[in-house]
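Backbones bend. Our protein:
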Amino acid sequence: MVGGETALGVLRNCPLLMKPVIRREEIVPVLIPTSSEGQSSFASLHWRTRAKNWAGLLTRFLSFELLIQGLGFASSVLLVRALPKADYAYFTIANTMQQTMNVLADNGISSGLTAIGGRVWDDRSRFGQLLNTAMRLRRVFALVTVVVVTPILAWMLVGAGATPAYSAWLCAAVLLALYSQLTIGVLIVAPQLHLAIERVQVLNLCFSVLRLVVIAGAYLLFLNAVVAIMAAAVSFVFQECLLRRWLPRYADASAPVNANDRREILTIVKNQAPNAIYYCVQSQLAVWLISIFGNTEGIADIGALGRLGMIFIVAGSVMMNVVLPRFARVQEPRLVWRRYWQIVGVFCSVNALLVLSAAVFPEALLWILGPKYAHLEAELFLMVLNAVLGSVLGTTYQLNVTRGWIVSPWVLIPTGASTEIFLIIILDMSQVRGVLLMGILSTIPGFFLNFWRTRRGIRDAERSALTTFAQAT
């Protein structure tokens, strides 16, 4: 897409020139007319062609993605309905801390990987160096994360009522799942940057099918929180094996670690790590607060409502697998600015419709969870709104990260933390409603700061481009 637009910009400055416009599957010769009427007609044809291409891409992606998310949702609903509330509370804590470990083990490495990979993805040797460099850094970060977070996980489980032995089994299952996630988080960038969407979807489909099969089989025999975490761990191992098998197509797996890549990634990590830790804490804060101030039933309620958020995850999947890799490859500053607001605008519109559906049909959504959670009608809307705002905020953050635009932690963290502390003081954190309201209101500073950083990044890129042009001429 980006290369085609750049070529089009050159052709428009040339009179009556015949050039090929390269698409994914065919080469179409295009005659660029010099008259204003002809140029207008050509521009209209160009945008219709682009719209048709995007419509076809999104249709194929969404049809497959709906199947993937449907299988994942079926697994989640089965767990919500089958597990007793106490056991589902333990599962919620373990699953939350597993995600926390994965984010902390990354700490911005994947952002550096995407930012650099957007420049070297088409060089197999260089791309292999980059992947191996990121992998080594991630393992080092993971070791520190495991040492720090595992005792906290055990303490939270015991505090929620789990026996020490059961807590130990849950911790072991979480660590096994994390081990494969570390590799997946690095290797998945290869098919994403090469726009191999079909392969990414096959990978996700395998995960969803295998997890559902394991959980369904365990439901017929024996199912508890440990088995539920182990089902995800087994699926992650299978994903890792597939990615390792595909890797030689995209990169040289034996390439050495690159010192320059290491320095650049660590620079991004240094700038992003405080923010990554803050966002990690913020995204999991609801479960943590209800664990500390509430009770086991409240933890289960939060976890069950969170499962309904999977209904709205398709838009986020499109963003991660289709949109962000293409956005990372855009280099012209004005086009970056235009694409940014197109992405944010469409994403907000889709999510607004999802919030509306939750407001209109709360009973239908709660029926999915079963009678144990039928009393959470008011909390359902707050959970969906909280999830949507967090998703939109995460999207603006990820768009900035793909460009290396990081909000200073000296601004973000004090602003966000002071807002959250104030909300914790004035709201009732022992109730699910109070925890959800805190999550909703605490996103406000993040939106302002991310939009400000985007504008500043665009201006810096424009100045850099002008400087380069002046030096070249």
